[in-house]
Every structure is written in C-alpha cells, then in structure tokens.
Amino acid sequence: MEKVWPFLYSVCRNALAAGGILPGMTRPLTSALLTAAILIALMVLGGCRDSADSTSTGLDAVPTLDRVDPSGLPELAAGYTGWRQLNAEPIADDPEVPHGGRKDVFVSVDEEDGAYPDGALVVKRGSQGDDPAGLVSVMLKVVNGNPQHGDWIFREYVRPRPDAAYTVLAENEACWSCHDGAGDTDWVFTKADG
After folding, report:
1. Is residue 68, in this structure, part of any structural domain at all?
2. Does residue 93 share a domain with residue 19?
3. Is position 66 within any domain?
4. What is the pLDDT of residue 52?
5. What are the beta bridge partners of residue 137?
6. With contact defined as beta carbons under 8 Å apart, do 84 and 106 qualify?
7. Same-domain check for residues 100 and 157
8. What's the rounded Cα separation, in Å, for the pair 168 and 65?
9. Under a CB-based contact definition with an 8 Å cutoff, are residues 171 and 146 in contact?
10. List of residues 6+ apart from 183 with CB closer than 8 A
11. Which whole number is the average pLDDT over 167-182?
C-alpha cells in the first residue's frame, strides 16, 4: 500500500495540471472523479492488509503476543485475573518445578473435548520474592502456530519489582521440553479443579 500513495498523488497532480483526464473535461469534474477514485482505492486497499498484522480489522487477523500494554504484558492478556481460574487454591511453591513461587492459572476460554480452541490464552501468574505477580507465563493457541507443540505459542515475562514493567524472560524453545510432558492434556499441566 505504501507504493500506491505516490502513484495516486502523481496521477492526480498530472491530471489536474493538464486540465483534465480526458480532452475537454473541466477541472472540477476531473477533481471529483479523482476524489472518487481515491476513495474507492482506500476502501479496497484498506481491507488488503497482511492477515498476520494484528492491527488488521479483518476477520482473518492472527492473534499475537507481540503487542504489549504499558505493563509489558501482551494486550491479549489484559484482564486475565477476571478470567476463569483453573486452580481453586493457589498452587504451592515447589522449587523443583519451573515458574517458582505460588501460582494461579487463568484461561480465556474453556476446553472443548479435552483441547483448547484457536485463540485460547492460558496465563500463569507466579510469585517472585515479595511480588505476588513477579512472573507471568502466557500460552496462546494459534492454528498452525506451532504444530509440533499443540499450536501453542509460549512466552514468559518477569519484572524486578511490582512497580516495574515486565520483560520477556523465555519463549517457545525454552518451554517445550517441560510442556512436552503435558502433550496428552493439550500441553497444559493445570486442569480445572472441580
């Protein structure tokens, strides 16, 4: 689309400078036709964004963890503590497993026939020292996003203190070896209590 604007500008400038698109065409009529052509081009090209662009408003937009809010967490995970919590009680600290500290796990949607649907998010919040949410791990399910690992995209965020922004600690490959052990449960270890 970036290449269209210089072309349209050039056509408009040349047509107006020449006095019209066709011989005998008045300047106001030329201007009106060019304006209509530009509006049509904008409507047509506006829907032709790359479907991988998460800012696209098209129905085929692919969700992504790359757009983050001011806290440093993915925009898609905004409000996760209001989602369904899988564990009724906090998961106790176990130094033998990743994501140390006490943990809570939230899901954006429920499982369907033992698997999460496309677009599902699983967010694990873990304590780090005195910060009850010092570590946040996010799993996003995207069709064909990662077929060898259930189509899940993995990313883990940490912050040094409660008033700091999160930064990415690990993603995908760093998570696979552990989550491969949960392949039979759609790569999610925590099942809903009750």
Report:
1. no
2. no
3. no
4. 41
5. 124, 156
6. yes
7. yes
8. 11
9. no
10. 150
11. 87
Is 93 found in the same domain as 25?
no
Q: By residue range, what is the domain housing residue 142?
A: 75-185
Are 114 and 175 part of one and the same domain? yes
Task: For residues 126 and 86, give the distance between their C-alpha atoms in angstroms, rounded to a whole number.
Answer: 14
Structure confidence at residue 192 as a pLDDT band (50, 70, 90): confident
Q: Which phi and psi angles does 158 have, rounded to 5°?
A: -135, 160
Matching residue, tokens 């930064």:
167
Residues 6+ positions from 38 with CB-CB distance below 8 Å: 8, 12
Residue 97's contacts (CB-CB under 8 Å, 6 or more residues apart) are none
Kindly provide the residue ranges of all beta strands, DSSP E only, lying in the chain, ordered along the sequence: 84-85, 103-107, 121-128, 131-141, 152-158, 167-171
The CA distance from 48 to 41, in Å, is 11
In order of 28, 50, 53, 191, the CA distances from 186 in angstroms are: 63, 29, 27, 10
Cβ–Cβ < 8 Å for 107, 121: yes
Q: Which two tokens stand for residue 166?
A: 């999160």
Cα–Cα distance between 104 and 127 in angstroms, integer?
Answer: 9
- Provide the whole-model pTM: 0.67
Q: Which residues pair with 106 in a beta bridge?
A: 85, 123
- Paired with 107 in beta bridges are 84, 122
For the record, the structure tokens of 89 come out as 């009680």
Q: What are phi and psi of 155, to 5 degrees?
A: -155, 140
Q: What pLDDT, on the 0 to 100 scale, is given for residue 121?
A: 96
Cα 77 to Cα 123: distance, rounded to the nearest angstrom: 8
- State how many domains the chain has: 2
